[in-house]
């Protein structure tokens, strides 16, 4: 679908009322915290429940006879199609964090004295895992505080300067969409720069998959982890590990895993009994995702809802919007800060208590604490308007 069509569809409230009707929604606060995990559609929820009941009734018989040999591969193939990559480059995991941690834990292309790179906007578990790797293997961990306010150029300059000053950086984490501020990293430009300096990227795409389109092979990204339970709409406990076939030797089998051949990506993650009903639901999940218009339409809608509150919020004295308006650097997730109030957690609580708006406070970024605003596919422009009115009164 051309981007112009997706942009028009993003503003078609009739279309999104029909989409919202696919979900069962419990009455309660206006939810502006869809960044944690998404909802399953009613169709997906019913399919999931059906698989739960079948596995519960039949126990191990269908798992041994069908799932292990056929069903799990069908689910993997569906996920590979979603990513546009070869099935042999994909393994299903519990989460994006589990996927990225598996790569970090088993990456074998490092020597003592080499350096690792993370930023203040990387997910905590990713930063922690890279720190652990540094301690275990005699490496040095470099932490880059990304510039604020961020621009396309100053982000790239920060990375370029860091690579020049630290020529032994060999591995870096790169978060496509920050869970803290919603900043979208200029992935293609950073990947090109990393290749010039012989730095391998581990991509954390947890918040990108489902609301942004990207081509891993074209970008030259060989190692990545993704989430299926945020914008794709899968049951909880599902993520994706991606290792390009030509990078499989850079990642050892997890703790000597021998259940699968050494050239099989499934050996790179811990073996255990998975959430079989959730796995079996994945073909339905992806069919629903595509029926809603896929990442292009979903992303356009989330961006539209984001813009509805960001533009007026920038005019409110006492409110700072942390995420830039450069369309290359934002998506549906955007964070703000009340500049006259130090405690952003308390302000998020006031949004809920006084205005019935559910948000989440985030800390850890070098630019300071913030409140993350994340609309979803059932969010209406009227609900976004409620946020703007609340900001005006609280600022």
TrEMBL record:
Keywords of this entry: Aminotransferase, Pyridoxal phosphate, Transferase
Q: Which domain of life is it from?
A: Bacteria
**GO MF term (any one):** transaminase activity
The reply to whether Ribonucleoprotein figures as a keyword in the UniProt entry is no
Span of domain Aminotransferase class V: 74-370
Any matching Pfam family: Aminotran_5
InterPro entries referenced in this protein's UniProt entry, alphabetically: Aminotrans_V_dom, PyrdxlP-dep_Trfase, PyrdxlP-dep_Trfase_major, PyrdxlP-dep_Trfase_small
Coiled coil where? none
Protein's UniProt name? Aminotransferase class V-fold PLP-dependent enzyme
| Species annotation | Pseudomonas bharatica CSV86
